[in-house]
Each structure stands twice: as C-alpha cells, then as structure tokens.
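#onboarding

Welcome to the new folks! Below is a worked example of what a typical request in this channel looks like: someone posts a single protein sequence, and someone else replies with the predicted structure as tokens. Don't worry about understanding the tokens yet, we'll cover that in week two.

Example request:
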Amino acid sequence: MAKHTVSYSRLAGLLLLFGMAIRVNADISELNELTAAVGDYAEYTAIAETIRGQLRPVRYTTLSAGMTGTLLEVKGSPGRYVKEGDLLARFDCRAEQAERDVAAAKKEGAEARYRVNSRLAELDNISGLELSLSKAELAIANSELKLIDVRLSHCEVRAPFSGQMVSKQVQSWQFAGMGDPLFELVDTSRMEVEMVLQSRWLHRLPPDTPFNLTVDETGATIAATVDRVVSNIDPVSQTVRIIGVPAAMPDNLLPGMSGQIHIGTASASVIP
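Example response:
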C-alpha cells in the first residue's frame, strides 16, 4: 500500500512539473509574439517618421512646334499666368495661306466640273468613267484643302489650359523646327502628393487612408488621403510610389515643394 502511495505522489509531481513546463513554454511563446509585435511597430514607426512627400501638378505639358517656320510673335514669360486659349506664339504662315488659296480654287473648279458632268450623266451625254473621274478629282481637292487647313492650325500656339508658364525656349523672329520645344506650362490649381514607401508597409496605406503633409517651405500642414498606388515595386530598393489627393490647395503652394508625411491624421485641410 505504501508503494502505491509513493507512486501516486511521484505521478502527481511529474504531472505538476509537466504542467508548469507547458505554461512556461506558453508564456515564452506569448512573450516572443509580444516582442515581435513591439519590434514590428517600432520599425513601422521609424519608417513612418522618415516618409517624405512631394507636391506635383496633375496637369503639365511641354508645348512644341507643330510646323517649321519663323515665329512672328512670342508672348508670355516664365512665372506669368496664362489663361486657356491665350495666344502664346504665331508663325509666319503666308506661304501656307497662299497654298490654301490655290487649293480652294482647285476645289471650286472640281466642284463645277462634277456638277456639269452629273447633269450630262442625267442626259446620258457622258460616260460613267468620266463622271467617276470628276468625282474623284473633287474628293482629292477636298482632301488637299483639309490637309492645308491642318497645317494652318499649327500657325498659332495657344494655351491648352490655364496655368503658369515655367519655361520659354524661343523668342520672336526665331526659326523653329517641327517638334522643337517652345513653352512649359503647369496647372498649379490642382496638385497631388507623391510619396515613396517600403513595399512591405503597403498594406498599412490602402486607398482613402488619411495623412498630413507638413510643407518644409511654408510650414503649413495639408490634409490629404491616399488615392492610388502605382502598381510597380522597384526591385532594387523594394519601394513603391503612393499618390495622395489634398483636401484643399492653398495659393502659396508650388509644384516641387516637399515635406514630412504624418500617417493616420487628416484633421484639417490647411493648418498654418
């Protein structure tokens, strides 16, 4: 009987030790998970504190010469505001206009010839071939006139949208070739915020995530939200570009200004 009592006591002791070992292992596992979570958060916080954002225009363009010729007039200067439709440059198109006059006269003659041949065809006084040829001549004359009109449409360079002229590469009486850059325009009324983030933190910035941008140059804080992610991860740096949309755009902000990104807050549109 004593032997059985000792055996039961040993068994109980072993079970107690086993339970304690399991509990210790569980505590260690929980501690490891907590440590990993804390490290994970600390790393994210460190990365978030280093995220920089830059303002970039939604609309910007380089206006190039659509024809070859001499510029009779060039308007505007860098830093000046232009309105949509404003005349920026005008080419010397006297030769093209003369060509149009010739083409218009040819079209008028082709129309007259086709009208006469159509009337003769009704009287059965002309062959079908002659009627078809006169119709083709009229079509050619129309096409030639349209082609010259397209060339004439490049005689004037007008602003495609309202914005600021940031560069001007030509002057009046300068000769420009087709495709030569003339002006650079930027629409400063609509801008986006572009930031670069480590790709492993992409899941923390889904669309509509609020954030603030504190602009270095002005000190203002702009509220914005994530609009989209550029679907291309840089294979070397493992970074991804994220585009945000500001809630409001004050007049004193310019494209290229940059600042610190603060994730998870967008309490005010503009904080001075």
